[in-house]
Amino acid sequence: MTKRGAFIVIEGLDRSGKSTQAATLLKRLQDAQSPAKLINFPDRTTAIGKMIDSYLRSESELDDRAVHLLFSANRWELAKSIEETLQSGETIICDRYAFSGIAFSASKIRPGTNSYPLLDYSWCRAPDVGLPAPDMTIFLDVTQEVARARGGYGEERYEKEGVQRRVRDVFERVAEEVEGSGGRWVLVNADESEEEVQKVVWDTVKEIIGGIEGPIEKLWDDKREAGNVDALYM
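That's the Thymidylate kinase sequence above. Prediction below.
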């Protein structure tokens, strides 16, 4: 069977170094002559992405349900392209994916209260069912003390400590579901130096960058069997 490309998603809390690690991993793969490309969600270049960008910068206000569906629609815009790229043998590194969409939406509190969720977890998950499933998700876990010390923290709508704590709680539920459905969710301590995190990320992904045998799975497909699960905290 011809091998396809690996689909690697990098998730994490804000200022955990996702974009830096994704770009570094891309360069390392390209230097190794391994075909790879980087995609980002939200993709702020599309018509839908521009609406999302305006919202994230607090330049516009949208209903919370509408915002969540826009984020999902933004991912569906690229779903076919993701599958075609993987089938061609090229690895995809994805900076944020459906898991962030669920975590940020399902962590919202009800107006005028300190209770959440505003949006039900199952409702938040539903629009992304059937998207291409990652072969591996790397979650960069950063403490708020370290995140605050990094440049630019607090510039966008969700970069508030209370929000980030709730988001992390939802991510833990997402991780359990991903692992339970046979996916691979790898936890990495992103408080460490950029170089140390790079080493852990590379050591984690290098086993699959030569290609994957088998079909591209779908997110939360109940026909997936439990498989290899990794949990790494270094």
